[in-house]
Amino acid sequence: MGTTYSKDERTFLKQIGNHIRGFRIKANLSQEKLSFACDLDRTYIGSVERGERNISILNLRKIAKALQVKLTDLLNI
After folding, report:
1. CA–CA distance, 10 with 8 (Å, rounded to integer)
2. How far apart are CA 48 and CA 16, in angstroms?
3. What pLDDT is attached to residue 58?
4. Is-contact 74 20, C-beta < 8 A?
5. CB 37 within 8 A of CB 66
6. pTM value?
7. Residues 6+ apart with CB under 8 A from 2
8. Residue 58: exposure state from Cβ atoms within 10 A (0-12, 13-18, ≥19)
9. Confidence (pLDDT) at 57
10. Which of 59, 52, 70 is nearest to 13 (CA)?
């Protein structure tokens, strides 16, 4: 059973995902390397970057640590 998001919510998830992708590329990391660094599956990272996942705050914290940025930097869109 999937969750249905409003257009505004989908846009927000895509913005967060694009922001994470930007930090990952700036850090010169592949999705696979980032996934190893934060102990998340590579397909999960990809779906986050595409805005397909409503990422939990704990996973967002893992990603921020792996990218060596502040959690607030990931949310500052």
Report:
1. 6
2. 8
3. 97
4. yes
5. yes
6. 0.90
7. none
8. exposed
9. 96
10. 52
Residue 3 amino acid letter = T
- The values of phi and psi at residue 51, to 5°, are 80, 25
Joined tokens for residue 54: 């409503």
Using 50 as the pLDDT threshold, list the residues of the chain that sit under it.
1
**Which amino acid type is present at position 47?**
S
The per-residue pLDDT for 3 is 78
| Rg of the chain taking only CA atoms, in angstroms | 12
Question: What is the second-level CATH architecture of the domain 7-75?
Answer: Orthogonal Bundle (1.10)
Using alpha carbons, select from 53, 28, 54, 58 the residue that is nearest to residue 43. Answer: 53
**Cβ pair 64, 70 in contact under 8 A:** yes
> What tokens appear for 28 in the block?
């010169």
Tokens of residue 17, six digits:
């995902």
Residue 61 three-state SS = helix
